[in-house]
Amino acid sequence: MELTPTAPKVRQVLAFLLVRCGKLVQVGELIDELWGDEPPASAMTTLQTYIYKLRKDVLERCTSATLHTRVSGYLLDVSAERGDLLRFERLAHEGRTALDEGDAARAADRLCEALALWRGPALADVSAGEILSAHVTRLEEERLRTMELRITADLELGRHRQLISELKMLVSEHPLNERFHSHLMMALHRSGRRYEALEVYQGLRRMLIDELGMEPSAAVQQLHLNLLNSDAESRDEGAPAPVVRSRFETLLVPAQLPPDTSDFVGREEVLRDVRRHLVRPQGENTAARAVSISGMPGVGKTALALRAGHADRAEFPDGQLYADLRGTGDRPTDPYEVLEGFARAIGVPAAEIPDNLQERSKLFRTWSMGRRVLVVLDDAHSVSQVAPLLPAAPNCAVLITTQRGLYSLPGVRHVELDVMSTKNAMALIEAVSGRRFTADELGAAERVARLAGRLPLAVRAVGSRLAAMQTWPVEKLAAQLESLPRRLDLLSFAELDVRARLASGYRRLDPGDRSALRLISLLPPPDFTATTAARLIGNGTDEVEAQLIRLAGCHLLSVSMGGGGEIRYRLHELVRVFARERLDEELLEPARERPEAAATAAAADHARAVREGVRPAREGVRPVWESVGDRPDSGYEHRDPRVVRAAVPEPPARRTRPVNGVVKALGNG
């Protein structure tokens, strides 16, 4: 039964929903597709009419598709066995996998079945707008790539004579497609027609030089040289086909991933998300798949990346590469050095490794083309550091961990990692310590998890401490964490050091942002606004908000939306503790030792008045917690005279604005 709508716009809406089936299509995207840059005033109403017609005329009579209305758009669910696009992508993926596994016969069957679903050009009977046209291009590219793979499988099965006519037609239709030319050269060569194969190369070379002013790719040139040097003039039909190998095919298969964490706990949902993106069907993209995992220091980014990498290692049989980019260190790793390590790992002789970054990057991309390789880039600093290290092949995948979100890197799935749940944090303490908490110990264990901020690095540190001191009651550890002035001392064990990890990111901040972080650590939890912080720091709200955004970009702050659309900022508890330490060690202790005169004395008077509950002498002056609009919860720490003293770490002539800011915060503002 024919259900395709006849109205062009309704047909266009249906096509858009189908190419994005299983995904939310925003209303704005539909309007842009239907009317471009000049939508009518009635665009929303008209679109709703098209959706109504689509439901009534098509979907009510179709049992294999369901259209869901969401707050911001529509989502079309189509049965995997009834949707041509879904079946094509699944079959193409199965064929590609079979080819990678060396099963050419199965690959050819699956790829032929996938191509048989095509009955003409993509969306041939649809008036495509700008967005749909991009999808048409993607689908046609995927069709050609699937055809290339099917021909590769047929060549491996010895069907070279059968392919010659088809390949000549494809070369005529796609004169700039080097892969089709390569396949034709191989088919002719294996059929005993090497002279014709060499003529195909010469014709391709002349056309590329005339049309584009460039030579054929290195792979095609290498194939040409191999054919020139080959003694094999012909092969029998159906005989096993020898593969003309590139310079890379005899090299090593790297397996560089560090060991997985055996006591990995939780993260099930985010792990599924990462793995789903790494191994998604290739029909969705023509570039390498990439996932960027970001989060605050010690949140477990590397552990998650390694768990995902090891879980999907079988998906990347051509190798797994790993590099520590040291992005939070004082000297991030140069990608030039990383590429040298990659080249050595795959067996490239030292004399053949290029001596500049661009050529090394090209060499790596050339090697990875046609392979299934996983690249893990740990602790990345910037997009410019990562970009040369990315493979270009769609069969490859990249996992990136970074404290800063690399949001300008195109085509990347961004995953922000948060702290653990209390339940998982307690389970991790048990796993690391080797203990099983009794019912009487569960309350203390929960306090330990909470005081460790549910931060995996801190949780591991306390778990290791309990493992080293098996006789220590968990209640005692909880009591010490609650009472110790320097809590981070207990959250450090051997190489597990929360303070050191936070300090590495802190050192990379510019001085103004470090100063802001120190001061906002004195604001009462749980959160605050930019206006509150500005009154404390003494700068304009816009300037301070820019600082807060930079701190949030480094995952030293989190951002949420409060009531009435107000943006609120929150310090993780351990970041707050660390920032208080830096305030003490960098500013307050040195300030107490200097004989600063008037400014210090005035600050001390204010501090004393606040601490003793005496109203300051100047009329109208209010305590800091009243001025900034946040009420203290525990008393002392929010009346802390450090708010005042922090303003005068340097002589007043050199540092006046913070003094003014704290005076504003203490007074009427």
UniProtKB/TrEMBL annotation:
**Chain residue ranges for the region called Disordered:** 625-657
Q: Which Pfam families match?
A: AAA_22, BTAD, Trans_reg_C
The OmpR/PhoB-type domain covers 1-78
Q: Which domain of life is it from?
A: Bacteria
The family database entries (SMART domains) matched by this protein are listed as: BTAD
Transcription regulation recorded as keyword:
yes
DNA-binding region in chain numbering: 1-78
Return the InterPro entries for the record: AAA_22 (IPR049945), AfsR-DnrI-RedD_regulator (IPR051677), BTAD (IPR005158), OmpR/PhoB-type_DNA-bd (IPR001867), P-loop_NTPase (IPR027417), Sig_transdc_resp-reg_C-effctor (IPR016032), TPR-like_helical_dom_sf (IPR011990), WH-like_DNA-bd_sf (IPR036388)
- Indicate the transmembrane segments per the record: none
Q: Where is the composition biased (Basic and acidic residues)?
A: 628-643
Alphabetized, the UniProt keywords read:
DNA-binding, Transcription, Transcription regulation
CDD domains linked to this entry: BTAD
Which PROSITE patterns has this protein been placed in?
Answer: OMPR_PHOB (PS51755)
Q: Record's family?
A: Belongs to the AfsR/DnrI/RedD regulatory family.
Q: What is this protein called?
A: BTAD domain-containing putative transcriptional regulator
Q: Which organism is it from?
A: Actinomadura monticuli
